[in-house]
């Protein structure tokens, strides 16, 4: 029987989808044959369209050789293989989907995405654990990073700005896990917040005034609640005449100011040396004549240096922090200062925090995935051993309500014309 006649019979036969074992064997066969025939030479510069035809040809050869009938269209199988060669395999189209914010891989068979604040499982899967690890290593290779049994955890940033975290066995018991926080290419605007009812117009007007008046602001919230998004948007109201230094673990901020210096921490290399921490960058930033310092996230010893910067003339500085309420955020600041080894009384530490931070903005994600500014709190002085706070806005019963007016002290700060 000729190849053409066999293929016609093959198409008309009862077909079943390839199982994972056969698909893994198919992938291996096609890649090996293409490498032997020199088709993979110069692959990085080749176009997707130019690869599809030869890949389909090799798939046909494999199916004929193994006498396999299958229901999956050849172009679908070919697309999977081309994604494997040029991109990141099963998650390539997820990375290109603008509606997806996070991609979470829990082993080869469980892939979840987050859209509009809601997690959902998608019908994407890897062939096996080795397939997941191969994709992780492909992501890390251009960055000069590695992952293996001796180094089973890694944080990194892809060239497009997306953040990734990977952890593999033996630490991950159910298979390799990969988390991707996608980088938004388009800068969001205040209209995005208003259209999504994240806050009210009068609340936004008040926060714009706070930024322009150079209040020190802390944005608090849980993971994925939208802290960085809000920080990005508020930073647009910084005067173009100010020099801003940003410090992040993975660069996500998209400031539109013309005078911005972006600094990023560096993890240790495979030998355990070369690390540059956020605390070292904050100290260095103070020598760079900044008007404002924006710390992507407060999580460790850099908090003490950031608070000192806020207290010594770098007004209008901002940061984010993981906490469930403004009160918890202030407690976390106190705790992190204590963990730096700062030798002083609790009351003095509270005075340092209260004198540095003017405002805490709490952002939350509701059960339906909607993100809202749940509280705006003014930070006052220490009274009776506790930092006094004054709630200005809160989200209750699905509406944003003013819950107080700024104190005279805050009013004076808002009315000062510092520039």
UniProtKB/TrEMBL annotation:
Protein name: CpaF family protein
Organism: Vibrio ostreae
Superkingdom per UniProt: Bacteria
AAA+ ATPase domain mapped to chain residues: 213-367
Gene Ontology MF term list: ATP hydrolysis activity
Alphabetical list of Pfam families matching this protein: T2SSE
Family under the similarity heading: Belongs to the GSP E family.
């Amino acid at each position: 029987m000729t190849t053409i006649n066999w293929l016609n019979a093959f198409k008309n036969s009862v077909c079943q989808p390839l199982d994972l074992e056969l698909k893994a064997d198919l992938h291996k066969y096609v890649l090996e044959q293409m490498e032997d025939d020199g088709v993979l030479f110069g692959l990085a510069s080749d176009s997707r369209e130019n690869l599809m035809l030869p890949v389909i040809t090799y798939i046909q050869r494999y199916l004929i050789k193994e006498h396999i009938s299958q229901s999956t269209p050849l172009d679908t199988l070919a697309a999977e293989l081309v994604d494997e060669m040029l991109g990141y395999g099963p998650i390539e189209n997820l990375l290109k989907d603008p509606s997806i914010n996070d991609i979470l891989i829990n082993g080869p068979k469980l892939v979840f995405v987050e859209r509009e604040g809601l997690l959902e499982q998608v019908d994407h899967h890897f062939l096996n654990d080795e397939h997941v690890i191969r994709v992780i290593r492909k992501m890390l290779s251009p960055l000069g990073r590695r992952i293996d049994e001796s180094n089973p955890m890694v944080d990194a940033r892809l060239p497009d700005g997306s953040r990734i975290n990977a952890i593999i066995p033996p630490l991950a018991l159910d298979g390799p896990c990969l988390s991707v926080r996608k980088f938004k290419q388009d800068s969001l605007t205040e209209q995005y917040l208003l259209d999504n009812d994240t806050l009210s117009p009068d609340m936004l007007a008040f926060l714009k005034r706070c930024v322009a008046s150079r209040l020190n602001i802390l944005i608090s919230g849980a993971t994925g609640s939208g802290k960085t998004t809000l920080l990005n948007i508020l930073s647009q109201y910084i005067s173009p005449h100010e020099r801003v230094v940003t410090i992040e673990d993975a660069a996500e901020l998209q400031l539109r100011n013309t005078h911005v210096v972006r600094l990023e921490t560096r993890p240790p290399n495979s030998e355990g040396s070369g690390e540059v921490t956020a605390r070292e960058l904050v100290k260095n930033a103070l020598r760079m004549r900044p008007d404002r310092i924006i710390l992507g996230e407060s999580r460790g010893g850099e908090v003490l240096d950031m608070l000192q910067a806020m207290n010594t003339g770098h007004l209008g500085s901002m940061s984010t922090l993981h906490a469930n309420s403004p009160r918890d955020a202030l407690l976390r600041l106190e705790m992190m200062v204590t963990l730096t080894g700062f030798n002083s009384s609790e009351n003095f530490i509270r005075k340092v925090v209260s004198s540095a931070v003017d405002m805490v903005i709490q952002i939350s994600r509701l059960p339906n995935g909607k993100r809202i500014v749940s509280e705006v709190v003014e930070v006052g002085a220490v009274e009776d051993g506790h930092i006094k706070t004054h709630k200005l806005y809160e989200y209750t019963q699905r509406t944003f309500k003013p819950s107080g007016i700024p104190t005279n002290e805050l009013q004076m700060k808002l009315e000062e014309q510092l520039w």
